[in-house]
Amino acid sequence: MSSALPTALAGRTVRLGRVRLMAITRCAPLSILLLSLGSPAIAGATNGSGPLQPTPLGHGMCQAQRFADGSVEAQIAVDNVTCTTATTVLGPAAERADGAQYTANSFTCKSTVEGAGSPWAAAWRGTYYAYACANGHAQAAFNWGMRYIYGSSGGSTGSTGIGTLTFTNMGHRLLPSALGQGMCQARAFADGSVQAQIAVYQTTCAVATSILGPAADHAHGGPYARSGYVCKATVEGAGSPWAGAWGGIYYAYTCADGGAQAAFNWGRGYTY
Questions:
Q1: Count of helix runs (H) and strand runs (E) in the chain
Q2: Is the pTM of this model over 0.85?
Q3: Residues 44-53: pLDDT tens digits?
Q4: Domain hosting residue 112, numbered range
Q5: Does 15 map to a domain?
Q6: Are residues 75 and 167 both part of a single domain?
Q7: Which of 39, 119, 133, 215 is the most exposed place for a label (fewest CB within 10 A)?
């Protein structure tokens, strides 16, 4: 048998090996991409296969909700489910469960007791509950409790908050709070507009959110007077201090009644 045949076969084997190596190399980036797509890019997600967790403070994926009994659902995270389900179905059910496990709309919700030393303790006073809800691949997680203090040293109606007060150099007018430092709970209105980055000085969050906020919603960026307060707005947009929370144009309101002041942003394109 000619010695050329083994040599030819060996060469063919080498070339085939190179082809296989090239195929593996070219497919590797796609494999890596497919693996990366399986990793959750959710603020509240846990590593591995564990349940979804509430979001870090100031990074809630849905608007926090306050219920009639004064309890609050906050630090809300969602995966394959909507904020509407999390806040209008699962939140009210958590309020009724009062910290216990429950089932609502096919979601099974389990809770753990949280308190001092927990990741979200700075937003709560005393005991609160971290809920994890699942319905197949759909998940929601949030904290629920009676004594929510995030952004306010005295609760939702307190007159001073954790955020630093900022005034203009001219006229000493109060400015809206820095992002993530709101002194009062942001509020969404029926038309989809939002009042956020709320700051108060010698007045209460109750006045800011239940009187001045709805009046701003009616004013649609214009000036107005309500309950002794005179409120003026400046048009804000890209490049403004709060632009990271808004898409497009929004309005920075400053309201004053003597020494009492409130300031906040109002608009329709809230994205924070």
A1: 5, 12
A2: no
A3: 555 456 889 9
A4: 65-145
A5: no
A6: no
A7: 39
